[in-house]
TrEMBL record:
InterPro entries: CE4, Glyco_hydro/deAcase_b/a-brl. The lineage of its organism: Bacteria, Bacillati, Actinomycetota, Actinomycetes, Kitasatosporales. Residues 53-76 are annotated as: Disordered. Keywords: Signal. It comes from Streptomyces caeni. Residues 1-22 form the signal peptide. This is Lipoprotein. It comes from the Bacteria. PANTHER family: CHITIN DEACETYLASE-LIKE 4, PTHR45985. The keyword Plastid does not apply.
Length: 420
């Protein structure tokens, strides 16, 4: 198969929100006094053990998580699709709540990378001590009481629905002036510790003592992340490995089966076909915007429909290439933003509705994907990694994957019984 075309010009580095774009501030707040719905209290009958100041709580095993099963000899792998969101927060656009609803309606779960400063009120901004920057500095917004309430009201039911709450860290610093690409391993560890702390202490920092806790232990929940602008991956991965993370999604890759790097699953962002272009495009809304309207977040309104269709069709072509080919998991990244009239949000919703209910398709979070990968026979995964982009086994899946498997890990269906 021919080599994958080059990545579209100007997007290799700026893969997430550019710091110059005001649209990256998912912490902007919604209407004051808006009606609050679906606070997402723990399910009836669950055990609740408050953690720390009661901002978070242990409520038992997360609901709606499928038990990962090892492929049977010769079994074709399912087509995994991961929809993920950088800097997840609920603001006046109401996109967090919108896509939570879309996911439930289409049998999908997703990964929400929460920015810690979205649970930190503006008046407490000096509590944040970003690496290589003055206290209280952030290239994205902090929040106010209304915005924090609204975000909490989405985080609770999102987790109870089976979605993953990851992290997008805090200040979203990119570039050469103290950006994350210049941070040391210890500075990354400090940033991660602060991101955890803001989630685990929002009650203290906001004074919202009567709000129900988040129904999860964030220390256990936090197992992966995507770095701002896809920068700083090398030192972040070292820090994340030391902290017990299980995956990273901060790189750029082709649509092939993933492998581990430095002990973490490398679930990098992927290149997909770019309709009308010879090069390929990163499967992220921001990159489509940059290649369509440059740094203008609201370009030519006459082209909004065309631009959204182009992103939708690119993602669908990437999906079909995998679904009909090597079945490599498809990784899609987005932001809760209404860039170019919200056309990319429309495109993402249409893709979710088109693919997630298809036969042998599983729209899952990164955490669910790594659970499945960890349950598989390493020899089978190694064989899957021999397939190129869009390449289905010539001899068919049954012949390709029929082999004597290694024993399954204990606790996984098909594992040998426990010893005496």
């Amino acid at each position: 198969m021919a080599a994958t075309p080059r990545i579209a010009a100007g997007v290799a580095l700026a893969a997430a929100c550019a710091t110059t774009l005001a649209g990256c501030s998912a912490g902007t707040t919604g209407p004051k006094g808006a009606a609050r719905k679906d606070p997402g209290a723990p399910a009836p009958g669950t055990a609740l053990r408050l953690i720390g100041d009661g901002s978070t709580a242990y409520t038992g095993a997360q609901p709606h998580l499928p038990r990962p099963e090892r492929l049977k000899p010769g079994q074709r792998p399912p087509q995994f699709v991961v929809f993920s969101w950088d800097g997840a927060g609920e603001d006046g656009q109401r996109l967090f709540s919108r896509f939570r609803t879309v996911a439930k309606a289409n049998d999908a779960t997703m990964t929400y990378f929460l920015s810690g400063v979205y649970l930190l009120p503006e008046e407490k901004r000096d509590l944040y001590h970003p690496p290589q920057h003055a206290p209280g500095r952030s290239d994205i917004g902090f929040n106010d009481e209304s915005g924090i309430r609204d975000t909490l009201d989405q985080l609770r039911p999102a987790w109870l629905d089976g979605n993953e709450i990851g992290t997008h860290f805090n200040g979203h610093f990119c570039g050469n002036d103290g950006g994350v690409g210049q941070w040391s391993v210890d500075e990354w560890k400090d940033e991660i510790a602060q991101a955890r702390a803001f989630v685990k202490s929002w009650r203290t920092n906001t004074g919202l003592k009567r709000e129900p806790p988040l129904p999860f232990d964030y220390d256990q929940e936090l197992v992966g992340a995507r770095t701002p602008c896809l920068e700083g991956q090398e030192n972040f991965v070292k820090a994340a490995r030391d902290l017990g993370f299980r995956y990273d999604t901060s790189g750029v890759a082709q649509q092939v089966w993933p492998k581990k790097a430095q002990g973490l699953w490398d679930l990098s962002m992927q290149l997909v076909p770019f309709p009308g272009h010879s090069e390929e495009q990163l499967a992220m809304d921001y990159n489509f915007m940059v290649n369509q309207s440059g740094t203008q977040t609201q370009g030519d309104s006459d082209k909004f429909g065309e631009w959204g269709d182009q992103m939708r069709d690119a993602l669908l072509q990437g999906f079909r290439r995998a679904y009909e080919g090597n079945r490599a998991p498809l990784v899609i990244g987005n932001h809760f933003e209404s860039w170019n009239g919200g056309t990319y949000m429309r495109a993402v919703q249409e893709v979710v509705e088109s693919v997630c209910t298809r036969r042998e398709v599983r729209c899952v979070s990164f955490r669910q994907l790594v659970d499945w990968l960890d349950a598989q026979d390493p020899q089978v995964l190694g064989k899957l990694r021999t397939l190129g982009v869009g390449q289905a086994p010539e001899e068919g899946w049954e012949s390709f994957l029929t082999a004597r498997p290694a024993p399954a890990p204990r606790g996984v269906p098909g594992a040998p019984p426990a010893g005496p």
